[in-house]
Every structure is written in structure tokens, then in C-alpha cells.
Amino acid sequence: MNLKSILLGAAAAAAAVTGAQAADLPVAPEPVDYVRVCDAFGARFFYIPGTETCLRVGGRVRVDFYFNDFGDKVNSWNRAANGTSTRARGNLYLDARTNTEYGLVRAYINLQATRNSGGGTDMDLDKAFIQFGNFTFGRAGSQFDFFTGNTFGAPGNVGKNWSDSNSWVAAYTAAFGNGVSAIVSLEDGTYRRGGTAAYAGHRYPDLVAALKVDQGWGSAKLSVALHEARLANAASKSKVGYGIGAGVTIKLPMLGAKDTISFQAQYADGALSYAGVTDTADVAFNAVTRSTRTSKAWSVSGGFQHFWTEQVSSAIDVSYADVDAPFAGTDYNRWSVSGNTVWEPVSGLQFGAELGYASTDFNRASRVRDKDTITGMFRVQRTF
User: Which Pfam family would be a valid example here (predicted)?
Assistant: First the structure.
């Protein structure tokens, strides 16, 4: 064996030992972005990995069975009318929030899919808005609205006469402290048109202003709105309609920890949706006298909710509306009441039953038959 062979053998042995030692060394793991809980905005928010934005994902599944109007003989004699019907609805909520030097930046989406008896699936973008500090832009609840009911308020049940509308809004909220705030909002007036009249093209957004108080005893709100009422008939005149509303919700801890009672009143002239009336046109034109007049309506409403136990609650909502249509229009007054009882055996899961009644009395000159409506429903709902 010569010197060259000895050196090659030694080098090979050293390389083998070095390789074995390197294989025994620990390898640094790849960095992992774990989902972190975000407690800045309440429960169920988490940070989107790699960002400082907090996201809450939620949803709701609602299953309804309706006992349709069985309070009027005209309906009971109609063989084409459905005595019972069903509805399944699903909602997906996404709520993304970020604290910035300008204040809260928020994006909210509520996607809704509905399947009714004998029909197809209806998709709806119920809400989609952005908040930037004190500003709100997008499809959201009208800033005019206040009390919108404690009962189910489902379309298959008896409806109430109060303002409850989603709209496109551009709103600014000023907070003065101690729960007092003021709101100014521009809103899409096409969502507020009533009846089946032929309206002209939309020109100006509705102007809404509100003053609100939220404190330990409850909340209160005073709202006003301006609305353009303009018919397609070129001979008619454009009118500036308006709505005024005031409401209060009072907490009743002496009865139950979550018990409340609410009252509100609304008046509208040429903007009937702000009084909860949607079946009468805001304005009418008389071709004989070539005059244009606005419709008027007022409504009062309220509701009470009581929790018998942590799992069982009952609610009742009532409303009354009086409608004055110009010229030979159909004047009427309507009152309605609905009550329900809900059992929530586990958080987010509800079983409820509701019964509603409404009475509509038309003016005699219209020769429209007075109507009584009685409906019922059963609901199963899971919110997560």
C-alpha cells in the first residue's frame, strides 16, 4: 500500500463521519402563520394570516312553514291559492375590520339565498357596505329607520306599517359623547317609491338626517327625510316629499334582563315608504284639472319582548296606518298585530311559532272590499 492509497482512504473516512454528523443535526422548521384570536372587536373575530385585519365569519339557516291567509272567505274559496307554503333561506356574513390612524375601516357582506314553495332559488345581496372612520358607503339599512320589530316579520306573515328598508347610502355619523350621535345620509330614492305609478327617472338622492341616543336605559331616535316624487307624465309637476319619524326603546330589567318595550310614530307626505306604506303611489296627477298632488300617510307602532327564562321568550308587535290618496285614490286605514313564542334550547338554535292578524278598511267611495288577514307560521333557525 503506497502513501497515495493511505491518504485517499483517510479522506473518504473523514467525509463519511462528517456526513453522518451533519445528518444528526436538527433542521430549522419553516415559519408557520398560525391563526390568532382578535379580541379588539368582541368574540369570534380572528386575524387574517399575514395582516392586521380581523375577520368574523358567520351565517344563518332559516326554515319556515306558513299557514297562509285563512281570515278572508275570498281567499278560502280560491282553489288556486296555497293554503300552506314553505321557505328555506341561508345567509352568509363576512365582517372584516381594521383599526387605522383614521379610525375603523370595515367591510361587511350579507349574502342571502331563498327557496320558496314551487319556485326557483332567489339570490340577494342583502347588505354590502364599507365604513371608513365616521363614513358609511354602500347597501345598508336606511339611516331613517328605528324600530323594525321583535316578531319574525316574514313575508309570508302579517306585515307591519313602519319604515324598514335597505338602501344605497352615503352617510356621516358624528358622535358627541354620552351615547348621543347625529347622522346625515344621502340615500337612493328608488328604494322608497311606492305603488305602481309610472315614475320619471331618478334625479336626486333622498336626504336623511337623524339624531340618536343610546344609553343604559335604552335608545331613542328622531329622523327626517326629503324625497323627490316625480311622475313620468310630462304634464305633472315634481313634488318634494318628506317623512318624519320618532321612536324610543326602553329596557325593562325589573321584568327581565333582556326585556324591552318600544314605541314610534311616523308621518309622510309624498314619501309614503317613510311611514311604512308601500302599496300607494307617492304622487298622483289629475288630467282633467291638470293638477299634481301628493299622497299622505301616518303610522304608529310598537312592540314588547319578554324573556320568561333564558331559553324561552315571547314578543308582540302592533301597528296602525292611515292613508290618504289624492283625487279618486283609495284611502284606507289598517291595523295589525303579531305575537310569537320562541324556544332556544342551545345558543343560536331557535324553534318558534307565530300568529298574525291584520284588518284593512277602505273608504266607501273606492268600492274596495274590506279585508281581514290571519296567518301563522312555524320556524326553525340556526345562527352561527
Answer: Porin_2
